[in-house]
């Protein structure tokens, strides 16, 4: 498994995503709140040590509901298998904001600073997603060397892929990869961590990603995400 211990500066954060995580619906917060975000980002940059890693494995799609990788069957559901179609290899990845960030969240919770905790939680979500983008770039580079194309990334919790299947996904990785552990409820620690799969193959056709394939109508990002994608494809 290839692993990376990152500097905060290795990540490219999208502040618009932080604002969206905070519930601003695509709008920019007032200046005072923007300054609070910037100050927290500067503080976090002094200790945050994100980690990422991935392993390349051969696999197949035996039917519309399952992936089979290293003789491990993972029930991801028909939506994801459709979008992973033509994949001949799979990159199983982990990305985490790191234990130091988790400890920071715990400190804010302990002192009862609800506003800062909410702000940090939203920033942590974007740190984790930025770490996914970092590891996706590394997977893309490796795929290019073999003449492969890649799919979008898909994670437990997406498109009817039940979180409990994360147990099977983690069985494909070394224990405590990137400092991430899984509890009996299939939740990860540190909490700001993302696991998932990216398909690779010579005949991959990249398809829409996001609200177009998700059935969760109540997602707070849904409407804004649809608008953003519409702008990209016009």
List its traits.
22% strand, NADH Oxidase, alpha+beta, 9 strands, 38% helix, 7-stranded antiparallel sheet, 234 residues
Looking at CATH, which topology would you report? NADH Oxidase
CATH architecture: 3-Layer(aba) Sandwich
Number of domain units = 1
Radius of gyration, whole Å: 18 Å
* Approximate strand percentage: 15-25%
**Major β-sheet annotation:** 7 strands, antiparallel
Order of helices and strands: EHHEEEHEHHEHEEEH
The total beta strand count reads 9
Compute the average pLDDT.
89
Description of the molecule:
- The chain has 234 residues and is α+β, with helices and mostly antiparallel strands.
- It has one domain (2-208): 3-Layer(aba) Sandwich (NADH Oxidase).
- It is built from seven helices and nine strands; from the N terminus they run βααβββαβααβαβββα.
- The protein has helices at 15-21, 31-44, 78-83, 99-111, 114-145, 166-170, 222-233; strands at residues 2-5, 51-63, 66-69, 72-75, 89-96, 149-154, 181-182, 188-189, 193-201.
- Strands 1, 2, 3, 4, 5, 6 and 9 form a seven-stranded antiparallel sheet that branches. A two-stranded antiparallel sheet has the order 7-8.
- A hairpin with a 2-residue loop joins β3 and β4.
- It is globular and about 50 Å long.
- The chain starts with a strand and ends with a helix.
- The relative contact order is 0.18.
- The model is unreliable at 217-234 (pLDDT under 50).
């Amino acid at each position: 498994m290839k692993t990376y211990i990152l500097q905060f500066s290795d990540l490219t954060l999208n502040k618009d995503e932080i604002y969206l995580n905070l519930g601003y619906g695509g709008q920019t917060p007032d200046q005072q709140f923007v300054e609070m975000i910037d100050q927290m980002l500067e503080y976090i940059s002094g200790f945050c040590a994100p980690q990422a890693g991935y392993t390349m494995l051969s696999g197949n799609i035996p039917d519309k509901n399952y992936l089979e990788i290293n003789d491990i069957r993972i029930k991801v559901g028909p939506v994801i298998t459709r979008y992973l179609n033509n994949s001949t290899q799979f990159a199983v990845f982990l990305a985490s904001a790191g234990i130091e960030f988790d400890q920071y969240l715990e400190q804010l919770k302990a002192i009862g600073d609800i506003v800062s905790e909410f702000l940090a939680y939203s920033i942590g979500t974007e740190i984790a997603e930025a770490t996914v983008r970092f590891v996706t770039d590394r997977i893309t580079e490796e795929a290019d060397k073999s003449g492969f194309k890649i799919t979008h990334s898909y994670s437990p919790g997406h498109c009817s892929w039940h979180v409990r299947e994360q147990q099977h996904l983690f069985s494909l990785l070394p224990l405590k990869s990137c400092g991430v552990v899984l509890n009996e409820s299939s939740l990860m620690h540190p909490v700001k961590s993302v696991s998932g799969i990216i398909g690779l193959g010579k005949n991959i056709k990249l398809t829409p990603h996001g609200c177009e394939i998700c059935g969760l109508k109540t997602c707070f990002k849904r409407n804004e995400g649809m608008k953003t994608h519409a702008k990209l494809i016009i």
